[in-house]
Every structure is written in structure tokens, then in C-alpha cells.
Design a protein that fits this description.
The chain is of the alpha+beta class. Among the domains are: about 100 residues, no CATH class; about 55 residues. The chain is about 55% helix and about 10% strand. The protein is built from 15 helices and 7 strands. It has a 5-stranded mixed beta sheet with strand order 1-2-5-4-3. A hairpin with a 2-residue loop joins strand 4 and strand 5. The protein is globular and about 65 Å long.
């Protein structure tokens, strides 16, 4: 294991738990032993808070329960951990049943679909229940997008948002579980790169022969190369626009590990260049290798020369947590149109401007487009008065 560039003992302890869970190895207890030797103690409250903010609670808690007696958390902590793990296991069962039922119902009305992210990614972990649950994403494609919306309305699925024909996805719910029906898998900020991605992703998703069985239903999955690119595209989009947790990076790492023998590195490099994701990918590779112990030979385009940039990226991940919800500047949104606009402007500044040193062109592009969109909304509002 390479020396990492993380300095705080809490972070080192959390990473040792997550690595042990990902690779099913004994927990590296050196960070905890060092704390005890120096007269400190293992701050399980701090570790727990960080694990939950990074949405890796299940992985961390499962590994923590295997520690030797002198390092084990309190009995009360262990009871809470077991309860959290069990709730996540039950949620997985619910989500799996919803994936199967939703897929079957859409097939019955002749709407083929492909499972994205979530329950598909969970299958790449040593046990699917080690991944903290999210929602369900089903790709139905542009041709069937409205048909899928109309079918779900007839079938009684609860609508959670307005249907907009040109939006990326439509949100609905089945058995209380949020499902996003995707017209497009994702959208890139560069028009040129986005056109190429839409052409490629449509071909990849419509012609994939990968299948898995979930709850006795045959479920379609994307091609391996689409998966490893899409998971990164998704996490980087959220990193730029708000923030990500460690779980999203773990999804990427486990996908790279699972598909390490089936990815054509030349094609991967070509597609990353085409989608303007090559440099961001390279900047994240030290996190995969140095922090999460993915073997170098399983991490395409890894180079230690990006370590300093990865350190900056990882500091944002630690400070902001899942989807940036724990950024210090995040406060309740005020009431009133103009107060909300000022609040939104401050939020955009607080999350984007500090990232300029990580990816200047993309940050500035996203920042200016966001401001432009906001100003258009203000002008439209004034004209309606």
C-alpha cells in the first residue's frame, strides 16, 4: 500500500475501514494504534459522522465490527451500527424488487430499458449490501421517453416532478421508491463533446447484451466500457456542480476492478479525449490507487504526477460530503424571490470559485452558463411583473 497524503487520523482511520471493506482484507489498524500510542483515543463519533457524510457508512461500519477487542467501538455504537447495516440490507431488498417490477411493467408495454448506476453498481462490491442505497435509474431512450411517462401514469406510479419532453429524465415513484426514467444518460457541458457522447451512448445502451438476474427478472445493463466512462462522467459532473461523497469514487473503483480484463485501454483513452474527460480522469486516478488501494494495473491512465491535484480534489470531497450537502456555506434557503436569487448566487460562488485551480476551463464554462441562466430567469421575472 502506498503512503497516502492524508494527514488527519480520522480520515486515515475511515479510509482503512473502507479499503478493508472494498477488498475484503483485514483492517489496517496502524492509524488507530498510533492514536492510542500517542495518548489519543479513537474518535468513533468523528469517524461515524465522516462515514455518513461520505455515504460509506455501511462499508465502514461492517469493517469496524471486525476489529480486535482493544479497538472495537462501544457496545452502544455496535448496536447502532448493526441497526444501520440491517436497514440498508432491507432497503436493498426493496430496491431490487422495484427494479424487477418496474422492468417487467415497462417490458409489458413494449418499452425496453437499461438499468443505470445504483443497484447495478452494487453488484460490483464484494457484497451488494455494502453499498449504501440511492434511487433507481432506468434508461428508456428518446424514442420511448413520452411513452414511458404515459405508461407509468396509467400504471399508477406516483409522479414526483413535472414531465418536460426535453429534460434528461423524469422522476416518479413505485412503492415509495424514486425512479428516474432517462431520455438521455447524461449531458456534457461542451456542445461538441455532448453531440459525440449522445451518439456513442445511444449506440452503447441500445446494443448491449449484458444481462443480470435481479429478483427473478432479467435486467439489461450497459456495456462495460460505457459503465466505467459513465460512472466517471456522473461523479465528475456532480463534483463540478455541487460535490460528491466517497461512495461515488468507490463505485468507479469497483467498476474498474470488475471490468479490468474487458476494457480496451486504447478505446477508453480515445473516448475520454473525445468527451473532454481525459485530464479529469487522470486527476482522479491517484485517489483510486493511493487512497482506495486499487492496483495500478487495474487503473487505466494512472500517473502519480497528478497526486497534488488529487489532493485538492480529495480535500473538497472531505469538506463537502455527498452532493456538497455538508459545505460550510450551505444554509436553509430563504423565502422571497430576490432573497432566493441572492442565496443561489452565493451558493454558486462558494462551490465553483474555489475549484478553479482544479479544472479552470470547465469551471469557468459552467460558472458563466449558470450565471447566464440565472440572469435570463431574472429578466423573464421582471418582464412578467
Amino acid at each position: 500500500m502506498k503512503e497516502t497524503i492524508i494527514s488527519t487520523s480520522t480520515t486515515q482511520q475511515l479510509l482503512s475501514l473502507v479499503r478493508a471493506s472494498l477488498w475484503q482484507t483485514p483492517v489496517d489498524t496502524r492509524p488507530s494504534q498510533d492514536a492510542l500510542t500517542s495518548g489519543s483515543y479513537i474518535n468513533w463519533d468523528a469517524i461515524t459522522t465522516m462515514a455518513l457524510q461520505q455515504t460509506v457508512g455501511v462499508s465502514a461500519f461492517t469493517a469496524a465490527l471486525t476489529l480486535p477487542p482493544q479497538l472495537l467501538p462501544s457496545k452502544e455504537w455496535r448496536h447502532k451500527a448493526y441497526s444501520f447495516i440491517e436497514r440498508n440490507r432491507r432497503t436493498h431488498l426493496l430496491l431490487d424488487s422495484c427494479v424487477a417490477e418496474a422492468t417487467q411493467l415497462l417490458k409489458e408495454v413494449d418499452i425496453p430499458n437499461v438499468l443505470l448506476k445504483g443497484q447495478a453498481y452494487a453488484r460490483n462490491y464484494p457484497a451488494s449490501t455494502l453499498r449504501q442505497c440511492g434511487d433507481i435509474d432506468l434508461y428508456v431512450g428518446e424514442a420511448n421517453y413520452r411513452k414511458a411517462y404515459e405508461a407509468t401514469k396509467k400504471l399508477g406510479w406516483q409522479s414526483t416532478e413535472e414531465f418536460i419532453p426535453k429534460s434528461k429524465h423524469y422522476g416518479c415513484a413505485l412503492k415509495g421508491v424514486r425512479i428516474e426514467l432517462h431520455r438521455l444518460a447524461g449531458i456534457l457541458s461542451s456542445p461538441k463533446a455532448n453531440r459525440k457522447f449522445q451518439e456513442w451512448s445511444t449506440q452503447q445502451l441500445l446494443h448491449s447484451n449484458r444481462k443480470i438476474n435481479i429478483d427473478k427478472e432479467e435486467i439489461s445493463l450497459p456495456t462495460p466500457i460505457f459503465d466505467v466512462i459513465f460512472v466517471f462522467l456522473h461523479l465528475y459532473h456532480h463534483f463540478i456542480n455541487g460535490g460528491i461523497g466517497l461512495r461515488q469514487v468507490c463505485d468507479w473503483v469497483t467498476l474498474l476492478h470488475t471490468h479490468s480484463n474487458s476494457i480496451d485501454h486504447n478505446e477508453l483513452t480515445h473516448r475520454l479525449k473525445e468527451f473532454q474527460l481525459l485530464k479529469p480522469w487522470q486527476a482522479f486516478t491517484p485517489i483510486a490507487v493511493q487512497y482506495l488501494a486499487l492496483p495500478e494495473y487495474e487503473c487505466p491512465l494512472y500517473s502519480p504526477k497528478y497526486t497534488k491535484r488529487a489532493e485538492k480534489i480529495f480535500s473538497f470531497i472531505l469538506k463537502e460530503g455527498n452532493f456538497g450537502r455538508y459545505r460550510a456555506s450551505v444554509k436553509p434557503c430563504p423565502k422571497g424571490y430576490w432573497q432566493q436569487k441572492i442565496y443561489a448566487f452565493r451558493q454558486v460562488n462558494s462551490k465553483m470559485l474555489p475549484r478553479l485551480s482544479v479544472d479552470p476551463w470547465r469551471i469557468l464554462n459552467t460558472y458563466t452558463r449558470t450565471l447566464y441562466s440565472g440572469m435570463r430567469g431574472i429578466i423573464y421575472h421582471i418582464l412578467r411583473l
